[in-house]
Design goal:
Layout (H helix, E strand, L loop, with lengths): L1 E5 L3 H13 L3 E5 L2 H7 L6 E5 L1 E2 L2 E2 H10 L6 E5 L4 H10 L3 E4 L4 H18 L3 E4 L2 E4 L4 E4 L2 E3 L3 H12 L7 H8 L5 H18 L4 E4 L3 E4 L3
Parallel strand pairs: 1-2, 1-3, 3-6, 6-7
Antiparallel strand pairs: 4-5, 8-9, 9-10, 10-11, 12-13
Helix pairs in contact: 1-5, 3-4
Amino acid sequence: MRVLVVDDHQELRALVAQALERDGHVIRQAADVEQARSALLEEVDVIVLDVGLPDGSGLSLCRELRRDGFHTPILILTAHNRVDERVEGLDAGADDFLGKPFAIAELRARVRALGRRRERVSTVRVQLADVVLDFGKREAFRANHQVPITTREWSILETLASRRDRVVSRDELLESIWGDTTSGAVSSLEVLIGRIRRKLGEDVVRTLRGAGYSLGNG
């Protein structure tokens, strides 16, 4: 995969780049927002993005990329691994988070997981009764009318779609989206699933009591 690593800490950026190169990835590096914009003139498969950059916020860049139509998975690196910051990041369009300091092995695993998720859902188009979910374009339709779906709601739908052959436990869903299973994250998940059901119908996300969630049957 082609991975862009954006961090102003030169030694950490080099360490991450070397580790990912050993996994066979092609690495591009950027030390700030402006360099990241230049690097993104060429396509990448995953972005590893630090929150604190010298010429701007990584979250602001994340919002900018999503606003401009970039669907590339983004892994946010943050020194403040709090639920409220993760929620803000998901609202900005991030796909995953990793708190500093982190184990290189975990970062490598999260990058691999984001790459696999992109491969699985990038061309998926799911029809559930009168609901159509186009994951490549991130477009949702109900009864032929387009329905606005937020970034966090897409994260839930994409996680369920990438595991459509089985039931996804609540903790697995929380770990995949927030990296957190605390009560605050549970409450946020329940609110988001309620919003998805109101927008797309009760059967789009099915709850299997005591087991977890699954995407509805077509």
